[in-house]
Amino acid sequence: MMHGGGLMGGRKREKPSGRVPNRQLVRQTAALFKGHRAGVATIAFLVIITAGAGVVNPVLIAVVFDAALFPTRAGVLLPVNLPLLEILVAIMIGITIVTGAIGVLQTYVTNRVGQRVMEELRNRLYEHLQGMSLRFFTGTRTGEIQSRLTNDVGGIQSVVTDTATSLLSNIVTLLSTLIAMLFLSWQLTALSLGITPLFIFYTYRAGKVRRQITMQAQESKAEISAITEETLSVSGMLLAKVFGRGSDEVVRFRKENHRLANLAIRQEMIGRALFAVIGAFFSSAPALVYLIAGFVIAGSHGPHAPIQYGTIVAFTTLQSRLFFPIGSMLSVSIEIQASLALFERIFDYLKMPHDIVDRPDARPVAANDIKGDVQLKNVYFRYDRGSFGPMTEPIQRPAPTVVIPNGDAPDENDPVPNEIRRDWAIEDVNFEVKPGQLAAIVGPSGAGKTTISYLIPRLYDVTKGAVLLDGMDVRDYTIASLADAISMVTQETYLFHASVRRNLMYAKPDATQEELEAAARAAFIHDRIVALDEGYDTLVGERGYRMSGGEKQRLAIARVVLKAPRVLILDEATSALDTTSERLVQAALEPLLTGRTTIAIAHRLSTILAADVIFVIDRGRLLEQGTHAELLRRGGAYAQVYEQQFQGGRIEAVCEDGMVLASGEVVAGTPAAPAA
Asked: Which domain, by its residues, includes 95?
């Protein structure tokens, strides 16, 4: 199922989240550095040293000019004071070398702290997403999630690693420079600072606009990520080619890419005119100082001019140190405003609650200690996605009833007419599967079969009632131990773009080669694996596309064999396979079912006939339960399903006891499965 419109060109935008106040965002951002106080303190110390030391040389310039190069006494120019000049030059060179070395150390510490913070943030975000329930991922596009992890986190990297240090450095440089300039001439200092407040005001306004545009740009990047993830995957590309929609997808991509390009241009141009004015003023400021100083000197009388030549040179040198941090701080303020939009999107995800978590008193249990008694007791469940904040737009449903649209319930692949409405996806279901039994769940598409199977391992939690495993609520087990005890084989087998070995070892990371081969033999796939170019080290391709449907299913079965769960859930793993592949998969399943509780969502007659108990589900309710013979004798809902879906048994199917012929006669002796 493709979310967000998939290849049909539909678009789902995120709900705009409530605007988070800047102070709260700043506090949340500052909290990221909480575990790095020592590193931050070291950076602050080094910044203060380098920024403060940077003022010394410009001040020494005045001494060089007035006391060493052009010393005067009573208005008379004296010879150059070489000893003093040598000392001053040595001090200036020494300060430059020391500040350069400290600057290198500062860069290392800054990047080390910044990269550690980024590493922890990425880990925290990924770990948080791993803890989200299946409900979140069925309502959010994969491309959107990837965009948060890559585009958004990557976008704040420069802020985390550089901006804070740059801001502190500029503040220290600005303050120390101001003090030195005031010491030299308060009149010239006032001239230099006169227009600064106006620049600060316009920078604040530009920053607010840039933050808004940055938010839109990130949403556009997320949309592009979603489009590429949907259309450039093997499944998406195959669908586009089959339906000849490649050109339409190019148009959709071009449209969103054009929007992103326009936003990027606006983002870059915000404040550029302002900075051009600032740059022009800063460049012409020394000339204005010369002009003002000239008027002051020309209007003075006597040997003691109010402004000396060395002061003028030192002041213009300090001016550049003053104007650079001001311009840098104005630019940084706009970058920070833009980055706040990214932080807001990241924290939106981090503050989403985990709705399926371990209870405080949940206890772990070893899979071998589970008997496998599964019971649903007064179970009610509905798909309520309203608690997840900035997800994709939820499907609107008229209150108080709930529309079950296409694909809303994860077990339904066929469309359910929108006029069919019900309050509950699962309503007051009660049944029990005893240890070692094979239970078949049957019913029409959209009945709630897979929903029930998802409630047992806590992929969803029941709304009311309880799911019991060995008489204990599954919510009283830890999630990890529950996952060890229960496993699933679904219709759509997911394989990583990795080797056969890695895909199998996903179930048991410490499995030996002997265990892998034993599991593969049990699933009738070992011979096929060793026939591959690199055997167990062969890459299976994107989603296993180098393997056939039957081969993928048998790999999935081998993976479950390796895990050896006490409870097995089958979402009819053979319903989409050809007859030969189906027989191979059925043969692989037979040893897997032995000795464990199995709950099968049945689309095949063979599974139903082999079941110890059959549960008939329709519109979320349990209508009947019993054996095949018992239910047929009742002539109720099951008998109707049996007649409609299986033509009263007049179709060929392979089962445990034999083959059902067109006449409905069961022939003893299961045909031997062909060799893999």
From this structure: 33-350
